[in-house]
Amino acid sequence: MRIAFTTDTGEVHNLEVDPHMKLEDINALIETMTGIASANQILSYHGQELTDPKKTLEQYGVIQDDLLLLARNQTSSIGAENIRQTLLTRPELMQQLLQSHPELADAAVNDPSRFTALIRQMEQRQQRQQQTNTLNADPYDIEAQRRIEEEIRMQNVTANMETALEYSPESFARVTMLHINVEVNGHPLKAMICTCAQATIMSPQCAENCGIMRLVDKRFAGVAKGVGTAKIIGRVHSAQIRLGTDLYLACSFTIMEGRENNLLFGLDMLKRHKACIDLQKNALVIMGKEIPFLADQE
């Protein structure tokens, strides 16, 4: 299945994983993608920190297209473990901890991972408080006020992101482009539906493979300008294209260099044939016929 994770800087990454993969294996995958060591990764799901490395994604309730939040661990797990061992060997300290922080004391005895997480949270709160005290020490310090303003802004950004994660997590997933199966002059292709392209565009190599390069009218050569520029070799005024299994249309193609996609089915053909992009049916509808959009893996 496919899941995504987003970092505290707003970057979104996609992962193809198995539901039975353990958290420690996911951490290893993320380390190869981001360079963040597994020990320094903090993964959260629906606001809950994932702390058991032996649990699987399925056990955590993670499903297809879910989003995890990745943060960096600024606390050394070795340091937290040293604190825990000290508490276990000092009964008087453990007794004090039971009175002041019973949850932390219980974690020290029964759940080392939870203990590390709680220590990290306490240190983060202390760091934030120290930063706030430092910034508020001199209200006339322009640089300090600028940093306070930036901190407030980032708090609002984080709150906005958490709201989006809770109510519309799908907005962080990768958007799949719309492709359909077509056939040009007997040659099967996958065409991308592109309403931002004024013309239906084909690459020279694709035109060669389809056997229509001999029909290119070079009087229509030029330069396409938009996000960058590309050389237009010419235009094929008419060639037969088959959409789906039994819909045949006459189509014109602009032959253009520098295309990542072999074929863009552009706005000219969509308007000419009164096509409808029906996302509810997940299909391109032309003349009452539905041509299904391809799945991402296709």
UniProtKB/TrEMBL annotation:
Keywords: Aspartyl protease, Hydrolase, Protease. It comes from the Eukaryota. InterPro entries: Ddi1/2_HDD (IPR057273), DDI1_N (IPR033882), Peptidase_aspartic_DDI1-type (IPR019103), Peptidase_aspartic_dom_sf (IPR021109), Ubiquitin-like_dom (IPR000626), Ubiquitin-like_domsf (IPR029071). Probable aspartic protease. May be involved in the regulation of exocytosis. Acts as a linker between the 19S proteasome and polyubiquitinated proteins via UBA domain interactions with ubiquitin for their subsequent degradation. Required for S-phase checkpoint control. PANTHER family: ASPARTYL PROTEASE DDI-RELATED, AT13091P. Belongs to the DDI1 family. This is Ubiquitin-like domain-containing protein.
